[in-house]
Amino acid sequence: MSNLKITNLTKRFSEVLAVDNLNLEVADGEFVTLLGPSGCGKTTILRTIAGFCNPDRGEIFFGDKIMNNIPPNKRNTAMCFQSYALFPHMSVWDNISFGLKMQKISRQGQKKKISQVMEMLGLEGLEKRKPGQLSGGQQQRVALARAIVTEPKILLFDEPLSNLDAKLRVQVRIEIRDMQKRLGITTIYVTHDQDEALAISDRIVVMERGHIEQLGDPYNIYRNPETSFVAGFIGLANIYEGTVVARDGSRYTVEAPFGKVVIVSDGRKIPEASKTVKFVWRPEDMKIYIQGAPNRVKGKILQAVFMGNITDIFIDVQGNKMRAQIDESRKLIAGDVIEFSIPEDAFSILRG
Q1: What's the predicted TM-score (pTM) here?
Q2: Is the pLDDT reported for residue 274 higher than 70?
Q3: Do 238 and 323 contact (CB within 8 A), yes or no?
Q4: In sequence order, which residues have a C-beta less than 8 Å from that of residue 51 and are 6 or more positions away?
Q5: Helix 92-102 to helix 136-148 angle, to the nearest 10 degrees?
Q6: What is the 3-class SS of the chain, one letter each residue?
Q7: CA geometry: angle at 276 spanning 271 and 282, to 5°?
Q8: Cβ count within 10 A of residue 322
Q9: 305-345, pLDDT tens digit by residue?
Q10: Whole-angstrom Cα distance, residue 30 to residue 299?
């Protein structure tokens, strides 16, 4: 059963259409991430679910109950903000207990619940500290503890890790995902960080200009992007157009600006011969050419950036720029001529 259902949601701010007739269902216990650039509508959706923002049109359902006219404090949701929003004059314990006091939970009940979440999130020993005495990661854990201690029906995250350094972001996102799995709370997570979304989500909603560009699990969002926007926004991508010149079953020969390539259809409809098709492949799909490998590509290295486990290579192929990421022991430098191959099944066909 859907724990959260959004139907025909539309929200406009003056002349800006923030959310455009959006439909989404989230299953009980599912972790769904709203991913997209600034201004795509993801935070507006989150605030509408929480009740902080009223839709111009459409409905929000929790289970089979419509929530449009239910105030935020009656929705049984909890939100973790980008700024943490901790009370600076309160101790860690009092910050976490705030929601329980609002629910009029007994002191003994509060003690039991707070002790459980503090142990779960590694906050033992910090009970008496004020937020100003905590690191950024500790503050984020306190904000998370305050949210989950009330046992909300839906947990909402609005860019919760954006104030943390890169290493700590990775650590805390793992903790968030582990906590969510253990508790089974339906979670909606907003971010513009592609790596974060791929690492943490059951499904990802890729958004652009108030509408859903693509919805799917992390693997398919990355390996089978449907549009140029998704392909370019999620990870790195080589995107080209070409003309279909031949077909042999599920194998299509495409005349591209850099030469002919053979593409194995990924199940998406490919136009007939003499029709234009847009396609994409990932830089890590490019392999150093060996005899007999498909889709041979020869070009000059414009720049080679050694990154430890891989070398990030920018190549000129007949005036067309490409990007490859390879595990190569020999040192590569600008000006070298290099040959690659691209597996026939590495391509995805784009619809726009």
Answers
A1: 0.90
A2: no
A3: yes
A4: 67, 70, 71, 72, 75, 77
A5: 20
A6: CEEEEEEEEEEEECCEEEEEEEEEEEECCCEEEEECCCCCCHHHHHHHHHCCCCCCEEEEEECCEECCCCCHHHCCEEEECCCCCCCCCCCHHHHHHHHHHHCCCCHHHHHHHHHHHHHHCCCCCCCCCCHHHCCHHHHHHHHHHHHHCCCCCEEEEECCCCCCCHHHHHHHHHHHHHHHHHHCCEEEEEECCHHHHHHHCCEEEEEECCEEEEEECHHHHHHCCCCHHHHHHCCCCEEEEEEEEEEECCEEEEEECCEEEEEECCCCCCCCCCCEEEEEECHHHCEECCCCCCCEEEEEEEEEEECCCCEEEEEEECCEEEEEEECCCCCCCCCCEEEEECCHHHCEEECC
A7: 95
A8: 20
A9: 988 889 999 999 999 999 999 987 778 889 999 999 999 99
A10: 45
Going by C-beta distance under 8 Å and a sequence separation of 6 or more, which residues neighbour residue 131?
84, 86, 87, 88, 90, 92, 95, 139, 142
Dihedrals phi, psi of 124, to nearest 5 degrees? -60, 140
pLDDT digits (tens, 9 = 90+) for 33-79: 999 999 999 999 999 999 999 999 999 999 999 999 999 989 999 98
**Residue 36 half-sphere exposure toward CB, CA atoms < 13 A:** 23
Direct distance between the N- and C-terminal alpha carbons of the chain, in angstroms, rounded to an integer: 33
Tokens at residue 121, please?
């999130």
